[in-house]
Amino acid sequence: MNNLIYGVWNGEVYDCRRGEASKATPSLVGLDDFAPHNKTRAFVADRGFLIFERDTSLIKAFSQYMTQAAQESCGRCTPCRVGTQRLRDLLWEFAEDQADESILDEIEAIAEHVANTSLCGIGQSTPRALIAALRHFRDEFKPISPAQAVFQHSFTYTTAPCIEACPSKVDVPRYIDGVRDGKFDFALGVVLDNYPMAGACGRVCVRFCESACRRAMAEAPVGIRQIKRFAADQAITNNRLHFSKPAEKHDKSVAVIGAGPAGITCAYRLLLQGFKVDIFDAQQAAGGMASIGIPSYRLPKDILKKETEDVVRELGGQFYYGKALGDGLSVDDLLKNGYGAVFLAYGASQGTHFGIKNEYPDLDGYITGVDFLFKVYQHVEAGKTFNLDGDVVVVGGGNVAMDCVRSARRMGAKNVHLLYRRTEEDMPADREEIVAARDEGVLYHFLTNPTGLVVDNRRVKALELVKMRQTERDAKGRRNVEAIEGSTYTMPSDLVIAAIGQQVERNVLKPGEGIELDRDNCVVVDPETLETTRKGVFAGGDCVLKPQTLVHALGHGERAAESIADYLLNGAVSIKPEYRMQEVLKKNGLLKDECLEKPVVFRPRVVSPELDAVARSRNFDEVEHNISKEAAYEETERCMRCYRLYSLVTERELAGNAS
Amino acid sequence: MKARINDKEVHFEPNQTILEAARANGIFIPTLCEYHDLDHTPGTCRVCLVEVRQPGSDEAQYLTSCNTPMTENSAVRTMTPKVQEMRRFQMEMAMSDHNEDCATCTRQGDCELIDAANSTGLKKIRFHYTKAWMPPEAGTKPVVYDKSRCIRCYRCIAVCRKVQDIDALEADGWGPTAGVRLKAGTYDASPCVSCGQCVMVCPTGAMSERDQVQEVVDYIADPDIVTVFQTAPAIRVDLGDEFGLPPGSNVEGQIIAALRRIGVDVILDTNFGADLVIMEEGTEVLGRLKAKAGPTFTSCCPAWINYAEKHYPEILPMISSTRSPQAVMGKMIKTYLAEKRAIDPAKIRVVSIMPCTAKKEEAARKALSENGVPDVDIVLTVREFARLIRRYGLDVGRLEPSTYDDLLMSEYSGAGAIFATTGGVMEAAVRTLYYVVNGKELEGIEVTGLRGFENVRSATVEVGGELGSIRLAICHGLRGTRKLVEAVLSGEEKFDFIEVMSCPGGCVDGGGTPRQKKSYIPFAKKRQEALFTLDRQKKPRQSHNNTQIQKLYADFLETPNSEKAHHLLHTHYTARGCGANADIPAAWAELKDQRTEERRQRTEDRRQNPA
To answer: Which of A254, A470, B68, B571 is 20 to 30 A away from residue B414, measured at CA?
Structure first.
């Protein structure tokens, strides 16, 4: 960043007011060109502030920042509740030339007090930049000039490490607050403000939020997923969650292709905004991969149905089952038949093959992971016969592989083996899944890779394997694996399952439809708006991202709904400043590298009750149970509410949210 | 592990907080929101600041001692000038949005907030934020919340969750409007049973009983009205606290003297009602035992009745139909007493002094009224009663004790006297049951197996005769009650007779008794002992030997459970349920309120029109 005039960042003071600074200025990407044709004047954050235009009003920037801080204060602790209001008022007093400079001493004293003694991140972090400014650049505090009054605006974004880590940007501390406060429905409402599948996410989410949780620096991350499930189950399992159909506000209708998490979320959000939505799906039930791919011992189907089909129906959405794109249904037809926009969310449901010798798709005793899970699904949910016996060998190290081994145990397989070419530590699957499968009797074989199928009369008899070893660390510190020569052996098996990944299906979209695909068959979209290359057609979820997590799909569904609504109402899709700010935070790692500044009382992380390994390994009953109310309350107390405020000061008002 | 506090070496356990370590070493740190007896450290007031230097660091940290652990070899200072100044400023801010209109506050003269302010040496409050104040709740609920006096300690929520397991309250509001409210929006839909424990732990006057002192003063002043007072079994050992007497002092005589000085027309004792309840309920239980009709629950406690109606309606048929002592008194006053003394019942106003908030609600039950006129007109808690007495310039400690002069409804037995403590109702009932079954008095009178303080107790008592031994259970506090009720409903536990008192300790420590600062029911044992002493001094000690009770049956009610007794002294209960569907649009409205745009505008307004 070339144009820094002055500022304080991470404790370093930068002063270029009389020419070049003596040291390298901090380089933050994405601030200069935050908004097109709108000059970035300043940036105010927890780590400091940076001024990029000489005539920026420091006092106005901080007045607006503290106004936002006072708004964000939850009001529980005294210094934040009262102190942020007091700071806001004194800053504005000075900004509007109603007080002399002595007030700045008072402001500094209060700011220090609030930062030092507040309970959570809001009060602790928001006065820091102000304190630095008053210490090092007090001479820049002057009442607002008439020009500054007009040509200076702030956009302030409030977030936390857990929120930014979440692909769906769910306001995690706020729903934790809700449970702590005893407002379970409010907590659920916070999640439902983003997507409808709170109970599903509360059961199977991979928890990017928990990986980012600062409480890990004390003992362990907050049990965020368990808290979410707790809030969701209070309403869902007691049948207390119902929606009424919103008034139809717009005569535009939207076609959603795929009733998986992305499609359902997009439909849900458009319906709530008063659009008409029809959903098409190849299957006979909603849920997509969350239904077929996630076995019911992890996510019971009744919960899933309530949060997908039932919610969308209550909101007035229509389902058309047994309808797949490319199979009598085309984007052309949909747009011709009056849909104002189309959302493609048809997923990535084709299993990946090994590419080893003797591997033919229609062999007996050989199946991909996703096809196996589909057969299990049809057996458990629709009673279709599927006999499983003998030795089952699953290859893969991800969560789908874990779903396969655990389902195979439950289907009655005698021995279930899991093969993975790297080590246990390298497995991308959740730790809890690996442990649970082992408890259920699954046998692991690490550093083992398949090289061929042993086939007799179109039937797989065994799997040919080779042993692997780890190579030395490369420059990045990563260890790869390589085959050990001459270590080939065979493992007899009645069913081999290739759970090494999924792909987007081919031939769904016709070449003439004007929708660009990449070489993996994924739909090409603008990552900020999810617009495809065809006007009025949007895409999201696995068919864009390749197989990704549930919460990625939910996040895409939300963003698609925003874009589609924008497109239908305004004819074009604008980019929300929130999205831009999220990019800035991510690219500059602004929520990372923090430490705990104060000692914290040790509080152990909550443990969910589980069915005993013996009791659960032969049926599809839900394994993990909800935590008790007492445990939920205890767990919420571990949240440190690491909220941070980021304020971008621009010449003109940013669209959407600015003061 | 060791560290230094104020240069003195102290030893501490891992994970022990600075506040705990300081207290263990006799070092005082001012606190406000913290409530040790409930292990409640919300860390919201931020007053308990201390200076900490971690080993090897010269930097002073200013940390709240209540929720910061001691660290090995750290140096803590509790009274540096900087620490004192920070605490003072914290208090200044805490006071700046507190409604410091002490003259109109129910906690006047007895306020933990003032104590905390004094302990920091606060001398000035330079600014005020009052825009978020709202008038206290109106309506007829026995407990009233005034947000303008709330300091956001959330002790009320903690006691409701941890002690009572009712969980009726939730944190409400945002920023300046932060406070508490009932779950589910209304009292009826909320799990609240009006037990009043929230009032007992509130450090200020934010949670209070609905004050009805003025209504009583007006009745007393009205020459056309005949005021009839009854005081509950607990009052005589509770009231003294309010006038600085030692805990557990029996001030029955002073209460009578005070009421006489005030000009109350008829002074009665609810203990008489307790004896009457034993006659009715005992007979009822005997009938149910003979008919093998399953367990009977007591019915004296109105919060318990609320609890059963709202949370366990399936248990209602097992609850004794006998009215509570307050309610039998109300009915007997407006029928029997009115008839015998030739007073027009329409002119009578019955005022009950109760250790209870839920009794206010009980008095308003339709089933406890006659042609729309309630049998009990007004219920005052002990706290209101103390205010009433002060209205007449009286000090209970200085009054010469007096005695009852009513010959119809003021005598009571030792059994009636112990009604107010956990196990007391049961013991009183056993004394009479034994007599009815065996035709002779229980030897030794006292049933010590029923006494104690555990939240759930059970005992098998040999009653003899055709009943043999019966299984009894006693619980106080609703957390234990839930366990017991569930065990009974599931068939896991079989009892014949079960006493429930919603407040831990029983009525002597009820939600309407004097509040104690920073400690939860500290005088429970002393009050219990005082009642046992009263029982031992009393003659007779069994309800059936109360001569005025015998006269009541002979002259008016015929026999226990007679048709007339049934009509006048029994009641019924109604399943009410509670809870509501999840109101997600309301959640979204609240979320929107917490988030930026709307609030920004309102904040700007506030800024432009400062308070």
So the answer is: B571
Query: Taking CB atoms and an 8 Å limit, are B610 and A70 in contact across chains?
Result: no
Residues B518 and B606 grouped into a single domain: no
CATH number, domain with residue B74: 3.10.20.740
Chain A residues within an 8 Å CB radius of B67? 601
What φ, ψ does residue A391 adopt, rounded to 5°?
A: -100, 125
Interface of B with A in 178-217 (CB under 8 A): 178, 183
Residues B536 and B606 in one domain: no
Take residue B48 and report the two structure tokens written for it.
């308990």
User: Is B582's CB within 8 Å of A240's CB?
Assistant: yes
Range of the domain at B18: 2-96
Per-residue pLDDT band for A658 (boundaries 50, 70, 90) equals: very low
B137 shares contact with chain A (CB less than 8 Å)? no
Q: Which residues of A touch B96 (CB under 8 A)?
A: 82, 86
- B596: pLDDT strictly greater than 80: no
Q: Are residues B335 and B379 in the same domain?
A: yes
Q: In terms of C-beta distances under 8 Å and separation of at least 24 residues, what long-range contacts does B555-559 make, across chains too?
A: B555/B336, B555/B340, B556/B335, B556/B336, B556/B339, B557/B336
**Structural domain includes residue B197:** no
B584 contacts A189? CB cut-off 8 A: yes
pTM: 0.95
CATH number of B392's domain: 3.40.50.1780
Q: Does A659 touch chain B (CB under 8 A)?
A: yes
Contacts of A510-513 with CB under 8 Å at 24 or more apart are A510/A326, A510/A330, A510/A332, A513/A330, A513/A331, A513/A332
Span A40-95, pLDDT tens digits: 999 999 999 999 999 999 999 999 999 999 999 999 999 999 999 999 999 999 99
Q: State whether residue A368 is helix, strand or coil.
A: strand
Q: Does residue B425 share a domain with residue B356?
A: yes
Domain tally, chain B = 3
Residues 6+ apart with CB under 8 A from B175: A70, A71, A73, A74, A75, A81, A85, B132, B599
In this structure, is residue B225 part of a structural domain?
yes
For residue A70, what are the contacts with CB-CB under 8 A and spacing of at least 6?
Answer: A84, A85, A87, A88, B175, B603
Nearest residue in chain B measured CA to CA from A243: B584
Task: Delineate the domains of chain A, giving CATH numbers in brackets.
Answer: 6-160+643-650 (1.20.1440.230), 175-241+607-636 (no CATH), 253-348+504-585 (3.50.50.60), 353-500 (3.50.50.60)
ipTM: 0.94
pLDDT given at position B466: 85
Q: How far is A233 from chain B (nearest CA, A)?
A: 11
Q: Do B152 and A77 touch (CB under 8 A)?
A: yes
Nearest by CB to A185, from B582, B603, B604: name it. B582
Q: Does B264 touch chain A (CB under 8 A)?
A: no
B554 within some domain: yes
Stretch 138-197 of chain A: residues touching chain B, C-beta under 8 Å: 156, 158, 174, 180-183, 185-186, 188-190, 192-193
Torsion sign (Cα): B292, B293, B297, B302: negative
Report the chain B residue with the minimal C-alpha distance to residue A96: B608
Would residue B158 count as lying in a domain? Answer: no
